[in-house]
């Protein structure tokens, strides 16, 4: 299955340290070698890097790893294809415009029986169920709120209702952001950590690399990192309970609610289902 990485902060922050370990899972420390991508929100603009090559060997990933882009919201994805070809157009995160903002979406899961009708205002470019669900979500949000963007809480409430439509039909771990908030849905497994004062040292699980955040931060900085599996081996990550929806703003959890649980009790059961 794919893996997800998200970051939400109260001050623009680079993701170089987390990405250094995360990218290794794309064909080196794990099997997710069917492409990778990362998107950064910077004001009204969005930088999006996509590559159908394994992230562990990607020259483009070398660039992102060494280029300290600072952002309040970041979404990254490494892919293990379950639906759709291994190609650039099927590489996450996907991006669309709604209410004058770019939205990014990355998905870890498989929804083989959920292909709802689309109105055509959001059209998939590739042939994955993930991009189809993303287009459907944005179309439903536009239908519900019209031309006026909702408040953060109204957005969260609407997404909870929409997720109930497909949460019981398969695996649907995902990250969604409009540059203001980062929404995370845990279907089987996601973990997060909030780094804030007093800061300490962190050591990556996938690479022998450490960083002392006390030397890189101020006492007011706060950074939330969300990932499929914890990236460090010396920090206290919080496991999100399956069947929960989360909203992060300014580097902390600002809303959390239950959704329908996944029909699978474990990753092994899910893998058996996929054959």
> How much β-strand is present in the residues?
25-35%
How far apart, in Å, are the first and last alpha carbons? 12 Å
Under the CATH scheme, which class? Alpha Beta
Report the sheet with the most strands, covering strand number, pairing sense and barrel closure: 7 strands, antiparallel
| Relative helix content | 10-25%
Mean pLDDT rating: 90
CATH superfamily: Aminohydrolase, N-terminal nucleophile (Ntn) domain
Just name the CATH architecture: 4-Layer Sandwich
Q: Sum up the overall morphology in one term.
A: globular
Report the count of strand segments: 15
Global structural class: alpha+beta
What strand line-up does the widest sheet have? 3-2-4-1-12-9-13
Domain count: the total is 1
Question: Residue ranges: pLDDT <50 for 5 or more in a row?
Answer: 270-275
Folded structure, characterized:
The chain has one domain: Aminohydrolase, N-terminal nucleophile (Ntn) domain (Glutamine Phosphoribosylpyrophosphate, subunit 1, domain 1, 4-Layer Sandwich). The protein contains 5 helices and 15 strands. The strands form 3 sheets. Strands 3-2-4-1-12-9-13 form a 7-stranded antiparallel β-sheet, covered by helices on one side. It has a 6-stranded antiparallel β-sheet with strand order 5-6-7-8-14-15, with helices on one face. A two-stranded antiparallel sheet has the order 10-11. A hairpin with a 4-residue loop joins strand 7 and strand 8.
């Amino acid at each position: 299955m794919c893996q997800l990485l998200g970051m939400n902060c109260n001050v623009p922050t680079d993701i170089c340290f987390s990405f250094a370990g995360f990218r290794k899972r794309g064909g080196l420390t794990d099997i997710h070698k069917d492409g990778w991508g990362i998107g950064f929100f910077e004001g009204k603009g969005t930088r999006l890097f996509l590559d159908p090559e394994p992230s562990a060997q990607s020259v483009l990933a070398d660039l992102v790893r060494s280029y300290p882009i600072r952002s309040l919201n970041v979404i990254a994805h490494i892919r293990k294809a379950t639906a759709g070809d291994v190609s650039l157009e099927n590489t996450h995160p996907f991006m669309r415009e709604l209410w004058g903002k770019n939205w990014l979406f990355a998905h870890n899961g498989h929804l083989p029986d959920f292909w709802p009708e689309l109105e055509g205002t959001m059209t998939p470019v590739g042939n994955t169920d993930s991009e189809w669900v993303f287009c459907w979500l944005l179309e439903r949000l536009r239908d519900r709120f019209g031309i006026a963007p909702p408040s953060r809480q109204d957005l969260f409430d609407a997404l909870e209702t929409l997720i109930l439509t497909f949460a019981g039909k398969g695996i649907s771990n995902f990250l969604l952001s409009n540059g203001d908030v980062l929404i995370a849905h845990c279907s089987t497994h996601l973990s997060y950590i909030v780094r804030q004062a007093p800061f300490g040292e962190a050591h990556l699980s996938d690479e022998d690399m450490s960083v002392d955040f006390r030397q890189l931060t101020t006492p007011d900085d706060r950074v939330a990192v969300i990932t499929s599996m914890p990236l460090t081996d010396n920090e206290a990550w919080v496991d999100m309970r399956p069947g929960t929806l989360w909203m992060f703003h300014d580097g902390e959890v600002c809303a959390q609610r239950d959704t329908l649980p996944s029909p699978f009790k474990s990753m092994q059961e899910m893998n058996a289902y996929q054959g």
